[in-house]
Design a protein that fits this description.
With about 160 residues, the chain is mainly beta. It has helices at about 30-40, 130; strands at about 5-15, 15-20, 45, 50, 55-60, 90, 105-110, 120-125, 150, 155-159. The protein contains two helices and ten strands.
Amino acid sequence: MSEKNNTILKMELKNGIVKIKLRPDLAPLAAERLETLAAQGFYDDTPFHRVIEGFMAQGGDPSGTGMQGSDLPDLKGEFTRDESFHRGMIGMARTMDPNSANSQFFIMFDDAPHLDGQYTIAGQVIEGMEFVDQIKRGAGANGMVNSPDKIIKMSVIKE
């Protein structure tokens, strides 16, 4: 893993570049997983399959179904009370099992304090949130998206 708080993910979307600062100080396992998968090209051409207006955009599943992840083992939940889910935060998606996060993540459109202490915060958008705001929204309560926007490329940079 890179030096503490020095890793940035560069996420290329159709409308522009988003930079995400990883937060190994809050969730070392999750931050390392996102960095590893980005470095491997795992996230390239993956969809934002679940996008709910006023809440979040979820991606990181190459199948686009929300049911799959990487071949790496699931992660132990890393929940903090020291930071809150607010606009631009990156959280790790999971099933009802708190130790099931793998590759899927979500980006917050708005504050969601009901997630605090329940989900892992792995990073935060530091540049390009206006491009996250342009991700195609889904329909219905579950926010599943037909013909979803995709991550063109996600890479690791040092700043």
